[in-house]
Amino acid sequence: MVDTHCPYCALQCAMTLTPSGDGVQVAPRDFPTNRAGLCHKGWTSTQVLRTPDRITTPLVRDATGELVPASWDAAYERIVSAVRRAQVQHGNDAVAVFGGGGLTNEKAYALGKFARVALRTAMIDYNGRFCMSSAAAAGNRAFGLDRGLPFPLADLGGADAIVLVGSNIAETMPPAVQHLAGARGRGGLIVIDPRHSATASLADDGQGVHLQPLPGTDLQLLLGLLHLVIQLGGVDESYVAQRVSGWDEVRAQAVAWWPARVMSATGVSDQALRAAAQILIAASPAAGGRGAYVLTGRGAEQHAHGTDTVTAAINLALALGLPGRQGSGYGCITGQGNGQGGREHGQKCDQLPGYRKITDPVAREHIASVWGVAPQDIPGPGRPAVELLRALGRPGGPRVLFVHGANPAVSGPDATVIRERLRSLDLLVVCDFVPSETAMLADIVLPVPQWAEEEGTMTSLEGRLLRRRRAVQPPADVRDELVIWHDLAERLGARSSFPVEAAETFAELRRASAGGIADYSGASYDLLADESHPVHWPVAIAAGTPRLFLERFATKDGRAKAVVPTVASVADDVRPDAALYLLTGRVLQQYQSGAQTRRVPELVRGSGDNYVQLHPLTADRLSLEEGTFAEIRSARGVVQARVRLSADIRPDCVFMPFHYDGLVNANDLTTSAVDPISAMPEFKVCAVDVRPCDQANPVSRSLAEEAV
Ligand SMILES: Nc1nc2c(c(=O)[nH]1)N[C@H]1C(S)=C(S)[C@@H](COP(=O)(O)OP(=O)(O)OC[C@H]3O[C@@H](n4cnc5c(=O)[nH]c(N)nc54)[C@H](O)[C@@H]3O)O[C@H]1N2
Ligand SMILES: Nc1nc2c(c(=O)[nH]1)N[C@H]1C(S)=C(S)[C@@H](COP(=O)(O)OP(=O)(O)OC[C@H]3O[C@@H](n4cnc5c(=O)[nH]c(N)nc54)[C@H](O)[C@@H]3O)O[C@H]1N2
Ligand code: SF4
Ligand SMILES: [Mo]
């Protein structure tokens, strides 16, 4: 029996694994975030260990274009010669790395070091850019530090009000719903979502309010809430005076967002907006309430103005006096398993370990000393994910790419372009344990262990460090990525050494992060072994604190910075030929690109195929019926999917999950427009045209392919 945590999302539910016969049994464990609960994906997670198409030996593309088994030496040789050729012909930045927010802290750290020290490239970024970057940018700007939840999740239980801006937690973190019970019981759950999602329905029957805005208008809606808080006398004036800077400008902006104006921008009525504002004011500590939380999810963040939308959510929380106060706060609900730790230790193109800036000379000097290289040998900032992926194989762009823990062929925005770019590379190397869609485009696939077969640490959505433990041995010919980077670094003649054990790597990460914002120096595997004593970063001499900012914020002057957000419309707005908004997001049984969960028969039952959700009125107008096929067309691609009718969605929107592969990939429709500050793509909304089609066998194609 081994105590570990779920491989999937950032809730990191605690579980115990017991090898039995051919498989591994899962039992939930009591833990503050999941309180002995698991979702369907967690319960079935060990089935992926034995998936019939698991990759168990290196694969190399042969002269006929087939991926065939090869030895590790042969695979390494081909990689090293392609890397050398690209470097000589096109410079070091011709080799790029794409990482993942599901990697352990050890791997996230070692991957950043591998890119900068062994490959000597600036070109590294990761799929967390798709996930956490807007909330991170806004959090850093306001608080001087980005720890998704600067308080324990269980604190939500005591609050009178909780606002969820674009989070469908009932499907994306089901065991966390229990923490909403207190607020629901007191009528205080406020859900902002263009769909009456499973989470929005938790606010039904007097348990709260559902606000159903036009997609991409959360910023205006939040300005409207702030306007009412000001008008109704809900501003915590003494908090604002003592703990916030920039408030006057923010107040002046919100004064101009009166309810009628907000309604014309968002479609949300004065009455609904006022009800939400009143709940929040009554819950705030200044009014004598038990406290309130404002939380954002990807629905608010994955926009071309996501950073400013999060900023507006933070401003609302600041006006009410919530952040840095026990029992209240602002938080972002981190998504990927190690979405928090993965954004701290150097996978980001502009970052060094410990959440340091790669442009900061002091940071470069410190990291260089840990790595045993000269500061000037560490490359500068590279290109963020979307820009990097779209530059692959183009003049001046990378010619060789390493992918670790991501499946951008499915999950990247405007994915037909990304697949075309991946195909244009001189060499694509993918490490994975299943033949993901990205792995199937690779020239070399290297097999790696799965979560239950490895050691390491993860940092949960609370900024809490957790041990991931090995319960079973990986297949014989599989190699840990730490070993792979060690072997390749040696063959490439890297000057620094790469430890092959997770514990040794963690020891090095501790030294590298010491003194940084995300300081892990005081943590150790021993300290983390006993989960009855939580360890949160920053952890230097003391074991960190679950609640940050109680005394001061991490800014220079100790005050939270209220910033005036810029109001903008969605990048790909509706027009006569594409008159509906496409929303994208998740369903309970599938995880991300589906590479893992589409291999679990139990999860595929009922959620094995993609669909398009439409309002019955819209369907009627378009002559579509439940179960028929619709063609969905954006300015970038066309897909065909089965129609599901539901009055839960606004009549001017349609919804598709993004968990499905080449045939019905929602990302063949999405736009590659990005937020100017965070470079996060606008996954959540684009303009589409929907019409009936006869196709019983759906296919998707790019507009370019269609023209041929
Ligand atoms: N089942 C499941 N759980 C997961 C994952 C998974 O793939 N599957 N992935 C994990 C990861 S990495 C992440 S990031 C989290 C994501 O967790 P969530 O943020 O909860 O998930 P999403 O479904 O992407 O988006 C939430 C909601 O945003 C709404 N939305 C769309 N556009 C807008 C808008 O303009 N404004 C507002 N207010 N809402 C909008 C959608 O209707 C949707 O209900 O989930 C984690 N948990
Ligand atoms: N339209 C639309 N698109 C979206 C989103 C959306 O809401 N709408 N959400 C975005 C978000 S929030 C996210 S987080 C991304 C995620 O999107 P992806 O990057 O596609 O995420 P996963 O499907 O988790 O892919 C992880 C891959 O790495 C493999 N893997 C898992 N662990 C390891 C490991 O330790 N090492 C290695 N080498 N491989 C491993 C898995 O088998 C899988 O193939 O998608 C984004 N795309
Ligand atoms: S909620 Fe997240 S961590 Fe918990 S069992 Fe489900 S996928 Fe795993
Ligand atoms: Mo995510």
Termini gap: 57 Å
Structural class: alpha/beta
**Helicity, as a percent range:** 25-40%
Low-confidence stretches: none
Helical stretch tally: 23
Count the beta strands: 28
The whole-angstrom Rg is 24 Å
Shape: globular
Percent in strands: 15-25%
Bound molecules: ligand MGD, iron/sulfur cluster, molybdenum atom
With strands numbered from the N-terminus, the spatial order across the biggest sheet is 5-4-18-17-16-6-7
Mean pLDDT figure: 96
Describe the main β-sheet briefly. Answer: 7 strands, mixed
What assembly state would you assign to the polypeptide chains in this entry?
Answer: single chain
Describe the structure.
It is a single chain. Helix content is 28%, strand content 18%. The chain contains 23 helices and 28 strands. The longest helix is centred in the first third of the chain and has 19 residues, at 72-90. The chain has 708 residues and is an alpha/beta fold. α7 (218-231) runs parallel beside α13. It starts with a strand and ends with a helix. It has a 7-stranded mixed sheet with strand order 5-4-18-17-16-6-7, with helices on one face. Strands 22, 23, 24, 25, 26, 27 and 28 form a 7-stranded mixed sheet that branches. It has a 5-stranded parallel sheet with strand order 10-9-8-12-13. It is globular. The structure holds ligand MGD (2 copies), iron/sulfur cluster and molybdenum atom (MO). Molybdenum atom binds at residues 131, 335-336.
